[in-house]
């Protein structure tokens, strides 16, 4: 999952984590934990949805219009004074559309793994979802993705790793989405983030970079 982790460990990523933490009144380390596990799951859910022409068209339309990456150009304005209600409602809509009937299961699994209560997890994802789509919209422009068929590679690139790793990651995420309340699969999903082969590629490296630890 180096793609999204690299983004979270950048200056912009630290700004996002800090802003979401302040907005939701959750500790920064726990906010980072929820985002590091939750954002790849959202990406995987989007990738699953693009398997249908309707899902791919819906995502392409969103990235061509409202979620074109412009939200990233004024993150300080987004967070200063509190995130406005329109953005939060947009986030709720994104989560409902992307996760569908799996939403409660995913939120519960992330809560159990991160130690953040389900309401807190939902608030974190609600604020982060429009930002994630903005990241995707920005990458779409940078890579000049013009067709719906290119969305899978775009999403896979943000998830990180090679094609073989991406297929394994996607399989685990889809198992979580389809697991009917069995949150134990989150351990495998988290393992992709927490147990990266490189010392600085996992969540420990992310948090160490943020807070000056190891």
**Count of folded domains:** 1
Number of strands: 0
Measured between the Cα atoms of the first and last residue, the distance is 19 Å
What's the helical proportion of residues?
Answer: over 70%
Q: What would the average pLDDT be, to the nearest integer? A: 84
Order of helices and strands: HHHHHHHHHHHH
Oligomer: single chain
Low-confidence stretches: 196-206, 208-214
Largest sheet: none
The number of distinct helices, counting runs of at least 4 residues, comes to 12
Radius of gyration over all CA atoms, rounded: 16 Å
Protein described:
With 214 residues, the chain is mainly alpha-helical. The chain has one domain (2-211). The chain has twelve helices and no strands. The chain has helices at 2-8, 11-24, 28-49, 53-64, 75-79, 85-99, 103-114, 118-142, 151-159, 163-177, 186-194, 203-211. The longest helix is centred in the middle third of the chain and has 25 residues, at 118-142. The protein is globular. InterPro entries: DUF937.
């Amino acid at each position: 999952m180096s793609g999204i982790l690299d983004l979270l460990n950048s200056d912009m990523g630290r700004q996002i984590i800090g802003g979401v933490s302040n907005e939701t009144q959750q500790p920064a380390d726990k906010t980072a934990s929820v985002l590091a596990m939750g954002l790849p799951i959202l990406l995987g859910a989007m990738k699953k949805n693009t398997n249908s022409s309707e899902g791919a068209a819906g995502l392409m339309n969103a990235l061509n219009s409202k979620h074109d990456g412009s939200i990233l150009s004024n993150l300080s304005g987004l967070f200063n004074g509190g995130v406005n209600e329109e953005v939060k409602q947009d986030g709720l809509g994104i989560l409902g559309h992307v996760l569908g009937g799996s939403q409660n299961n995913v939120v519960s699994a992330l809560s159990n793994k991160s130690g953040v209560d389900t309401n807190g997890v939902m608030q974190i994802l609600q604020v982060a979802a429009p930002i994630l789509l903005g990241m995707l919209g920005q990458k779409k422009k940078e890579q000049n993705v013009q067709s719906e068929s290119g969305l899978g590679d775009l999403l896979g690139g943000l998830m990180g790793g090679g094609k073989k790793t991406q297929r394994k990651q996607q399989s685990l995420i889809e198992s979580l989405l389809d697991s009917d309340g069995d949150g134990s699969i989150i351990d495998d999903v988290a393992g992709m983030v927490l147990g990266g082969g490189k010392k600085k590629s996992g969540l420990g490296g992310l948090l160490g970079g943020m807070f000056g630890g190891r």
